[in-house]
Amino acid sequence: MFAKIKKTNPLLLVAWGMSLFATLASIYFIEIQGNPAAALCWFERMLIFGVFLILTVGIFREDANVKFYAAPFVGFGIPSALYQQLVHWNVIQVDSISCSLSTVCTTKFFELFGFVTQATLCLLAFVVVAVCLYRLKKA
Predict the structure, then answer these.
(1) SS3 for 25-83, per residue?
(2) Which residues have CB under 8 Å from 108's CB, separation 6+?
(3) pLDDT tens digits, residue range 11-46?
């Protein structure tokens, strides 16, 4: 098992590690902190969970095409996370029921340094994975 991981491209491991971190962080915010999620947040979570699963299977099967399987998930995840980030920064104004009847997209469950929110972390995860997958394509 570890021999396969040692032969894996480091960029693929970085993408996998970032998707793992984002998946675990998402589970932490939902299950441990008890933060409710809006529909858009659930959509983003499904996408990052999918990226994690696809990359995990691709690494263990030593599939060189795994970047192509994960790319559509990242392609939908970046615009979604960017939209939520712009909502958090008040660049895009939304009404109170834009994402869910119980939780709105504007809800910030935490904020670091005055601008880092859960949307920022989600966007960062998707961008890092996208850059790694793009670099894999060129390699």
Answers:
(1) HHHHHHHHCCCCCCHHHHHHHHHHHHHHHHHHHHHHHCCCCHHHHHHHHHHHHHHHHHH
(2) 88, 117, 118
(3) 999 999 999 999 998 888 878 877 776 777 788 889
The three-state secondary structure class of 108 is coil
User: Which two tokens mark 20?
Assistant: 């793992």
* Amino acid present at 15: A
Cα 89 to Cα 8, 65, 70, 96, 117: the distances in Å are 38, 36, 28, 16, 10
Q: Whole-model pTM?
A: 0.82
Using CA atoms, how far apart are residues 125 and 19, in angstroms rounded to an integer? 7
